[in-house]
Amino acid sequence: MGSKKKDKVELRYYDIPQKEGVLALAGDEWLREYGDGIDYLHFHNLLEIGICYYGTGSLVLDKRVERFGPDMISVIPRNYPHTTNSDPGTKARWQYLFLEPAMLLREFFGDNEITRRRFLELLGRDAIFGPTSQYKSLASVAELIFDEIDKKGAFYIEKTRGLLLSLLFEIARIAKDEDEPDVQMRTGVGQIQNALRYVEKHFSEPIRISRLAEECHISETHFRRLFSEYIDMTPIEYLNMMRVLRACDMMRSSNDSMSTVALNCGFSTVSTFDRNFKHVLGVTPYQWKKDPKNYESRLLEVNVSVRKGW
Description:
Strands 2, 3, 5, 8, 10 and 11 form a six-stranded antiparallel sheet that branches. This protein has a three-stranded parallel sheet with strand order 4-1-12, with no helix packed on it. The chain has a three-stranded antiparallel sheet with strand order 7-6-9, with no helix packed on it. It contains eleven helices and twelve strands. Helix content is 42%, strand content 19%. Residues 1-6, 179-185 and 300-308 have low confidence and may be disordered. It has helices at 101-109, 113-123, 136-151, 156-177, 193-202, 209-215, 220-231, 235-253, 258-264, 270-281, 285-290; strands at 9-13, 22-25, 31-32, 41-44, 47-54, 57-61, 64-68, 72-76, 82-86, 92-99, 128-131, 306-308. It is globular. It is of the alpha+beta class. The two termini are 39 Å apart.
């Protein structure tokens, strides 16, 4: 008897143009056959909003499968396993927005950390999917953002940032009105989703593997096995990789010293930071900061389950 095929999940990471605060994927190139030859789920480092304009197929949201068609919208939190599959032999056209809620909310709320974390919790609660007629305000704001980025009129950067905040508040409002799923009922890769979320929130703090297992309501031994099975790396390898990614974000947007970056990303010493950074990217943080674009593609080599997003 053959062994049961294991589920796999892929991390896709994306870069946001700093001046716009959002990555927009739009245009004719997004008329394509989605999911062709792909039989696994993926998750990414940013919040995704998608609108379908043409075609039909299935949107897999962890273990939940929804049928999509024209005039439907999806909101998929960070670290949420999913994939899009066109009906066999057909094409669909989607447009996407990818954004970093924590950064936008930090700019808006300033030092009000409690309120910011409350909004982030709502934004990461669950995926949203349905017809645009059901989520009119959400779809309208998303369309305005696409239009601003496409036309790039006067003050479009400032207006786009305002619209992005409006988009986040719409998502939070919807999430507050909908029931949160019972995490203990999750199966498949969803069993470790709480651990991924915990790492996202607490990457700068010391994290024990037993704590991640507790977040998933399973034993540490079972958690380690599931994590390696689904992510193709150990929990420690994943944690260090995510810390390195956050360090890259910090080095892009600030002139903080390496010791400050290391501490803010959860590395107790600069030497530990250097060692893990070089293990992930193949170069030291100093070398990367000189010309990050030359080295960022090395993340593709970290593991077969990690690759650059579109």
